[in-house]
Amino acid sequence: MLLSQLFAPTLRETPAEAETISHRLMLRAGMIRKLAAGVYSYLPLGLRVIEKVERIIREELNTAGAQEVLLPIVMPKELWEETGRWGKYGKELLRFKDRHDREFCFGPTHEEAITDLVRSNVKSYRDLPLNLYQIQTKFRDEVRPRFGLMRGREFIMKDCYSFDVSEEASRKIYQKMFETYKKIFARCGLVFKVVEAGTGVIGGSLSHEFQVLAGSGEDAVLSCVSCEWGMNKEMATEKGHKKCPHCGKELKEYRGIEVGQVFYLGTKYSFPMKAFFLDEKGNQKPIVMGCYGIGVGRTAAAAIEQNHDENGIIWPLPIAPFHVELLPLQDDPAVRETAQKLYQGLQKEKIEVLMDDRSESAGVKFKDADLIGIPYRIVVGTKGLKEGKIELKERKGGQVSLIPVDAVIGELKKKLDSLLAG
Ligand code: ATP
Ligand code: MG
Question: Which mutation among 34, 140, 261 tests ligand 1's pocket best, with the greatest number of atoms within 8 A of CB?
Answer without folding.
Answer: 261
